[in-house]
Specification:
Layout: H1 20-49, H2 57-76, H3 90-113, H4 119-149, E1 155-160, H5 163-175, E2 181-187, E3 199-201, H6 206-213, E4 217-220, H7 228-239, E5 244-247, E6 259-264, E7 267-272, H8 280-299, H9 301-314, E8 320-326, E9 332-338, H10 345-348, H11 371-378, H12 386-391, E10 396-398, H13 405-408, E11 424-426, H14 428-431, H15 439-452, H16 455-471
Parallel strand pairs: 1-2, 1-4, 2-3, 4-5, 10-11
Antiparallel strand pairs: 6-7, 8-9
Length: 476
């Protein structure tokens, strides 16, 4: 049952103070940036000059002022905005932009004033300062994610929408707590099923609910009741209390780079670009995949040989497991993996019951897996031979999960869109839960990748794969 509607006699939400943890994090970020700039300047002086002489003294002074200059430049580029804390690549992109801007400014100033700057110092100090700052911010973010996994440093969110959408959002934020969104209440248009949080009012009660539970964010999900006029009025009512308003558009899986706002006849229209699945960008991706896979294959060849010997010694059968999978445009290929199961695993499959809720066959404690195979699977070492598939052009480093032919035979029209790109060794499914994901969630992540592919997204997924593989969570 839904709770009693909030008393409409409550006052208009008062202006709220910034959460203490946000202030502490921004101060920590500024101190980290200052430290990184100081270390970069000191390292440049030592490496370029070796000792302090009268000629070097101006560069020592410049190194002393570099931290202040760096913080000012980043503040002007709005790197310290609270909305950038904890998630997304925008924070790192702005830091990189600030680094490029300060390098360009120094070069232009030296040219205009005809100042003879030591190029070695500039080449060392400014890029090193940017790199150290990026690493420092990454460390701060990892620490924030650990605190959020314990329920700390969270934003208090009121979800506004229809019951099904609100329930989905509650489940998503509870599973991925590193986003820092803790939905503490909901406002629904009418009574409905349980959504996992208290329902404290309807759409007209949102500002009052925010005031009552001291929320700092309102998340409005796509629903016909909230058109442009209604959203504008809600924003006005939340403005005084400095409550953040976030809106989930109907195009949930379309990333920012594919959307632009174009004013037409005085109306801000959201223009959605089609995903670019062919042409030069695909050639660049294919070349990048094959080059990186070839290099990694050479570097890891001793490890691959050792693992192959270990598989042969610990259980009967070949070291490699070959299986037919479906790649881009429905073309079949033979995938290579280290064998992690007993040799008669396929014959015993019919005797087992899958734990999956879709077309996938998954068993959390599969009796067919060998002891060594369980270790290999936990850290995805069994998938290293797929580097050969990448070099041969059957797979990519990043992409959707490579499906079996019998799985593809059960695909609907929407799910078949996964086959527009090459399957990957890793992907959004790998860094967001692996085998713990439901079938629907796995499909959603794969389709999100297909719709929003970019080389930068690939690099981000590859970076996150290391921590996912090291943890070993969700692998079985």
């Amino acid at each position: 049952m839904r709770a009693v509607v909030v008393d409409r006699a409550l006052p208009v939400p008062e202006r709220k103070l910034t959460p203490t943890w946000t202030l502490r994090y921004r101060v920590s970020a500024a101190m980290s940036d200052i430290t990184c700039a100081f270390l970069a300047g000191a390292a440049a002086v030592v490496l370029r000059f070796g000792e302090v002489t009268p000629y070097v003294e101006p560069y020592v002074l410049l190194s002393g002022t570099l931290p202040l200059l760096w913080v000012i430049v980043m503040a002007l580029n709005r790197v310290y905005e609270p909305r950038l804390i904890g998630v997304g690549s925008e924070e790192f992109r702005r830091i990189a932009q600030s680094g490029i801007a300060i390098i360009a400014a120094v070069a232009i100033a030296a040219y205009v004033t005809k100042t003879d700057l030591a190029r070695g110092y500039v080449v060392l100090a400014l890029p090193l300062m940017t790199i150290l700052t990026l690493l420092g911010r990454y460390g701060l973010r990892r620490g924030l994610h650990r605190r959020r996994s314990r329920g700390q440093c969270m934003r208090r969110v009121v979800a506004v929408g229809h019951p099904e959408a609100v329930a989905d959002l509650v489940r998503l934020f509870r599973r991925e707590r590193y986003h820092g969104m803790d939905i503490v209440a909901a406002c629904l248009p009418e009574e409905g099923p349980d959504v996992g949080v208290p329902v404290l009012g309807d759409f007209s009660d949102v500002p009052l609910v925010v005031n009552r539970i001291n929320a700092d964010t309102v998340a409005v999900l796509a629903c016909p009741e909230f058109d442009g006029i209604a959203l504008r009025r809600l924003a006005w009512r939340l403005e005084r209390s400095r409550t953040d308003l976030v809106v989930a558009p109907a195009l949930m899986e379309v990333a920012g780079p594919r959307t632009t706002i174009r004013p037409v006849a005085g109306l801000p229209l959201l223009h959605v670009e089609h995903p670019e699945l062919a042409g030069v960008r695909r050639l660049i991706k294919n070349g990048f995949d094959r080059l990186v896979a070839g290099v990694v294959l050479i570097l890891l060849s001793p490890l691959l040989l050792a693992l192959a010997i270990a598989v042969r010694v610990t259980s009967s059968g070949p070291a490699l497991f070959r299986q037919t999978r479906v790649g881009r445009d429905g073309q079949e290929f033979t995938i290579l993996k280290f064998r992690t199961m007993a040799q008669d695993a396929e014959h015993r499959k019919i005797q087992l019951v899958s734990d999956a809720d879709g077309v996938l066959f998954k068993i959390r404690r599969d009796p067919r897996i060998t002891p060594l195979g369980a270790r290999l699977r936990r850290h995805s070492l069994d998938e290293l031979p797929q580097l050969i598939n990448v070099v041969n052009g059957h797979m990519s480093l990043v992409g959707p999960r490579p499906p079996l032919p019998e799985e593809v035979a059960r695909y609907g029209d929407d799910v078949r869109r996964r086959l527009l790109v090459r399957p990957g060794m890793t992907g959004l499914w790998q860094v967001n839960g692996r085998s713990d994901l439901s079938w629907e969630e796995s499909v959603r992540l794969d389709l999100r990748y297909v719709e929003n592919w970019s080389l930068m997204l690939d690099l981000q997924i590859l970076w996150k794969t290391w921590s996912a593989v090291a943890r070993g969570a969700g692998a079985y």
